[in-house]
Amino acid sequence: MNFSKCWLDYKPLAEYEQEWLTLAVQCEGKIVSSAVREYKLAMKEMTGKGLDVINTPAEQGVNLKLDAELVSGQDGYTISVSGEKYEITGQSESGILYGVFHFLRLIRTGHLEELPVANTPEMPLRIMNHWDNMDGSIERGYSGESFFYKDYEILWDERIEQYTRMMASIGINAIVINNVNVHEKETYLITDRYLQQVKQYSDLFNQYGISLYTSVNFAAPMELGDFDNCDPLNPDVAAWWKKTVAHVYEVIPNFGGFLVKADSEGRPGPFTYDRTHADGANMLARALAPFGGTLIWRCFVYNCGQDWRDKKTDRARAAYDNFIGLDGQFDDNVILQIKNGPMDFQVREPVSPLFGGLKKTNMILEVEIAQEYTGQQIDLCYLLPMWREILDFDTYAEGEGSTVQKIVNGSVYGQTLCGMAAVINTGNDFNWTGSDLAAANTYGYGRMTMNPSLSSDVIAREWTELTLGSEVEQEIVPMLMKSWSTYEKYTSPLGIGWMVTPHYHYGPDIDGYEYDRWGTYHRADRDGLGVDRTPAGTGYTDQYNEPWRTVYADPETCPEELLLFFHYVRYDAVLKSGKTLIQHIYDTHFEGVEEVEEMIARWESLQDKLAEDVYERVHERMERQLANAREWRDRVNTYFYRKSGAEDAQGRKIYE
Amino acid sequence: MNFSKCWLDYKPLAEYEQEWLTLAVQCEGKIVSSAVREYKLAMKEMTGKGLDVINTPAEQGVNLKLDAELVSGQDGYTISVSGEKYEITGQSESGILYGVFHFLRLIRTGHLEELPVANTPEMPLRIMNHWDNMDGSIERGYSGESFFYKDYEILWDERIEQYTRMMASIGINAIVINNVNVHEKETYLITDRYLQQVKQYSDLFNQYGISLYTSVNFAAPMELGDFDNCDPLNPDVAAWWKKTVAHVYEVIPNFGGFLVKADSEGRPGPFTYDRTHADGANMLARALAPFGGTLIWRCFVYNCGQDWRDKKTDRARAAYDNFIGLDGQFDDNVILQIKNGPMDFQVREPVSPLFGGLKKTNMILEVEIAQEYTGQQIDLCYLLPMWREILDFDTYAEGEGSTVQKIVNGSVYGQTLCGMAAVINTGNDFNWTGSDLAAANTYGYGRMTMNPSLSSDVIAREWTELTLGSEVEQEIVPMLMKSWSTYEKYTSPLGIGWMVTPHYHYGPDIDGYEYDRWGTYHRADRDGLGVDRTPAGTGYTDQYNEPWRTVYADPETCPEELLLFFHYVRYDAVLKSGKTLIQHIYDTHFEGVEEVEEMIARWESLQDKLAEDVYERVHERMERQLANAREWRDRVNTYFYRKSGAEDAQGRKIYE
Questions:
Q1: Residue B395's closest CA among B366, B359, B348?
Q2: Each residue's pLDDT tens digit, B389-420
Q3: Is B344 a catalytic residue?
Q4: Is A372 noted as a catalytic residue in this protein?
Q5: Which of A307, A532, A641, A642 to mutate to test the interface with B (most CBs of B within 10 A)?
Q6: pTM above 0.90, yes or no
């Protein structure tokens, strides 16, 4: 197989301690075995030496211990050192595995001085969503084809193992192996046609503390069974699911559960039968419950047949409107998976008001590592700072301090079925992620779910050191940290989003979605642009708790980066910077391109310090990013120049 | 096979003359045999009687005679009647066939009082271009799949024969059987892989006086041979073509020749080798010449990688700029095939200035029956009035009266290799043309090439009587006659074109091509829109002879329907109607929709007089047309309202 090892590429150490080569394993289990195997492999690659594995405590060595009472949370661990004795204590087998990966990370980055450490994974559920299809394609994939499937067969090779190790090393504990859009063949994943091979994946995942989930087709009873409906209140439909699920657990006792996209973008769902999403989710959840399975139900439900003439209907309102009334009606093993914003993974959105609204429902925050709207792994866009802002957003659900982070880590409502899910950005490209630098997002997502208090730049530094070496960290980290802001500058301004090429979502098309059915409008005319989402407009701001409701509804207090999301604003309105809106648009678009040029110069300065293939792959993408940024700049500026007639205050070139 | 007979659907006659049932055939040949067969079939279906075929003159009967001296042109015929004796005299076998079809038409429409008639086909070449691909798809096909090919096999069934009869009945004498975009498999059409089956087609066509042509891949020597180039001045390349062509004629002695799209939209061509189109065309023509073959070379050559920022480059200039300097350099058996306008089959374009420019080059006028930009056989758009205007356009090439018609019928320059070619609108739909009414364009195209002096409404009446019956003619003919104008009203205004959904070319997308690479811009800003093609702009108007050069360059004299094609015009400019430009845009778009509504009412009034399946098929399309027209109206009006800020003088609903 031809693939890189990403952040698990252990390089020989300049020096090492002899006691690292003794591992005292004082517990057992299949995940412990994985931890031992991982440690052994790392030592072999870093020191060239074999490992002495013993099962009694070692005064000169690394001790692995289990202590179920260690911490109150799940899968916590501590790492300590005393003289020549190291101790990695796990609250569970997974805790030991995480402790080993942490210890190895400290060795590799030369930060053993941080010991002792004590960590408990912050998010109970740390999920990867694969949008892989069984034909081998990946929806919104920018890194090659699927490494799970090809031509409707399930693959089994060393890449799967490497992938599993990578996921475990960053703390992932649940993986959904197929696209939320479940097509015909994927519907059969929960049948004997594929179950034995799914079990093979599940067994491998389990060895690394990971549960396997599948996306299911809500209409499966119609496609797999003899049903002419899939009404969730039809007892025969429910019975079919119970039987089907029982068989899944018969084959795969540790099966995690289902992820469902229903009544969304053409997918079937309970609305067809005038049932609620609670009806739909609970019916499936009850089939899973006897086996401890979990049902994850996506809230990405909106009318994708909107009329652009209609200025009252607002897609931003849809998730809240569809789900808030169901709060408290979902079974205990149901989780709602809520996208970070009310639209769809734009470069800038407000946080979904469902996080401030739902109180009696398990919630997962969904983000997208795959750079669908953020440069498609051609343009550099390190997403941790965005996710950081989202987690830090105070919903005021239970008074000040009710941040998204505290909701999804379970502390606000005492939930245990909560956490984060992310659409992953991997594929079968040699480097897994198209751009080598895009792996920082993959890595960073896992690290953040394990420990959201880690700042984005600390994670960037960690990833850079592990992947590209500490020599380039000083240049790479600021490059990553600035990239989201740069991308935002040259694309759509101030939270309005959607000025992208329809369907592909790469490159500018200012009116591309403006007269379409997707509910994604900028409403630009000759005087200004933006969507009025105040009570005078669509009323979306009312979905927030105070103070946001008031703050967002007033253009004077609305955070400026979201100004056009919430308000129609005249081109000649003056922003906090003292610039007019139109001048702000011109300026940021010129700046964005300049920043890409600076970024490229920075990368080029590192040529001698980087592996040639990595340098070239990334450099080639950066050239494409520059072309893209220039096209964005010129199209956005020309579009608004033609509409506004406003000259650039600095007299730069704006095409007529 | 499941297909309709279109205009060859012979209905029983209420009454007939006994002498029609005697056919005196005083000549012979395979086309004469076809004429006899056609006449016999028609009589059988119209009278239910068998035909008495004799080979001596009949005083009571229909006499078929050959007279090579009958007329000076090609394939002329006369039909006369004297007492009970009819005489159809052909200047050739094809002339007899055309005469028989004409005679049958007069019988069917009850217009025998028009006898005697004498006709000579006006256009020497009356060509159909099929954009059929061998996988069975049809580029810009809106009537099902190909009836020539399926899954890379050549089909052979009764549909082919019906098709051939239909073509002959309207005077077609040349058919290009594959798409001008020649893909990999189609490259093999001129090889033994397919030649025997192509010959089968050719033999059938020949029986009806039709020559078979193929589109060829200019890079065939590289794909079929061992060449690393296809440089037309490479003697080995030329030798390869000579050998290949010789083999084609060995198998198909009556093979017509080749059609070539080179250096266009990604197709290979002589430009790659710094050769001219004359180099390319002549090389191929010289391979065909020994066998009497003809080489048709398309002039649709332009830069499809244009930068929207560039306001000097003008796609409209491209064909003229690329070919005018080559006038006189083409071999005698080369014909340039010139699209009617300088862009690409828009609903309104000026006539290509090549028709006024080229003087020493054989020319064919290319039109598109397939309604790519004119409603895709969903929207009704009878194209004869457009073609009529094009043919009547006076190029002033050799002084006043040098109309396009006279250029392509050979009378201006005494050419014999000239005429018209059309991209056909057929497919394997039951009714051949998607909408039953779209067949009026297929039929009308042939009739017009035979006799361009026939007016569009006469042809419409003929087609209606033959296809739908004379009872509905009073309603259908005006419906057809108005349809182009209606379509133009609700789509892009005053000649600017291109406001369509990219790639698909159906439905509105005002900015869809505006920032793209295709050279198709409207340049709308907050003050006005249109492209300055005067000497102050792109200079395109200079490609015309006087007086057009001056007339087009001045917005005061420029024909208003082309105003925005030639000029950037302010929204508040006053048109000849006294309305401002913006008001004109609003008004025509409201009118267009109203006219569609009236058209539907008219169609509905005919329900009892039409076959149910025809009525329903067309009605369903008209409903889609109405939705399309409304979408066009609203998007165009809103787009220009947002840009101009101008209120509708009549206060109608324009969405903001």
A1: B359
A2: 999 999 999 999 999 999 999 999 999 999 99
A3: yes
A4: yes
A5: A642
A6: yes
